[in-house]
Design goal:
This protein has a three-stranded antiparallel sheet with strand order 1-3-2. 49% of the residues lie in helices and 6% in strands. With 151 residues, the protein is mainly α. It has two domains: 80 residues, Multidrug-efflux Transporter Regulator, Chain: A, Domain 2; 51 residues, no CATH class. It binds FE2/S2 (inorganic) cluster. The site of FE2/S2 (inorganic) cluster has 11 residues, from loops.
C-alpha cells in the first residue's frame, strides 16, 4: 500500500530511476516483477516510483557486489515497509540482519588478501612455502578445499 499523501516531488518516472541508479529500465522492470520495488500508475498508465526507491535499488546493487544472492536480498528488502519512504531505523534493521554475513565476507576477503600469494592449503604443494606450511599436505586430512583460506 502506498501512503495517502504523496507530493509530486516524491514520485519519479522509471527513466529517472534508471538514470540515477545506472540500471537499465529492463532491469528495473525485472526487479519490480520480483517485488523488490513497487510502482504506482498514473492516469495514463505510466509507472511512477517513490524517490526513496533509488535507495532500495542502490542497496540491491551494493548487495550484489558484496556477493549476496537475489533471494537473500529479497528477504532483506521484504522487511522494509511498503508504501512509505523507509526510515533510518528501517535501514538499521536490515543492516543488523546482514551484519553477520558481511562480517564473514570481510573476513574471507582479508584472508584471501593475506594468503593468495602464500600456501592456501589446497593440496597442490606447488609453492616452495607449501613444504613449510602444509608439509605432505597435512591440510588434506581436513577434507577437500583450500583450508588456509576457506576454513
Ligand atoms: S598452495 Fe596448494 S598446498 Fe600450498
Amino acid at each position: 500500500m502506498r501512503p495517502n499523501v504523496l507530493h509530486h516531488e516524491d514520485l519519479i518516472p522509471i527513466g529517472a530511476l534508471a538514470r540515477r541508479t545506472g540500471l537499465a529500465v529492463s532491469a528495473i522492470r525485472y526487479y519490480e516483477a520480483r517485488g523488490l520495488v513497487t510502482s504506482l500508475r498514473t492516469g495514463g498508465n505510466q509507472r511512477r516510483f517513490l524517490r526513496s526507491d533509488i535507495r532500495r535499488l542502490s542497496f540491491v546493487l551494493i548487495a550484489q557486489k558484496l556477493g549476496l544472492g537475489l533471494a537473500e536480498i529479497e528477504a532483506a528488502l521484504a522487511t522494509l515497509p511498503q508504501g512509505r519512504t523507509p526510515t533510518r531505523i528501517d535501514w538499521q534493521r536490515i543492516s543488523r540482519a546482514l551484519r553477520g554475513q558481511l562480517d564473514a565476507r570481510i573476513a574471507l576477503l582479508m584472508r584471501t588478501r593475506q594468503k593468495l600469494d602464500e600456501c592456501i592449503g589446497c593440496g597442490c604443494l606447488s609453492l616452495e612455502r607449501c613444504a613449510l606450511y602444509n608439509p605432505q599436505d597435512r591440510a588434506g586430512a581436513k577434507g577437500a578445499g583450500p583450508h588456509f583460506v576457506l576454513d
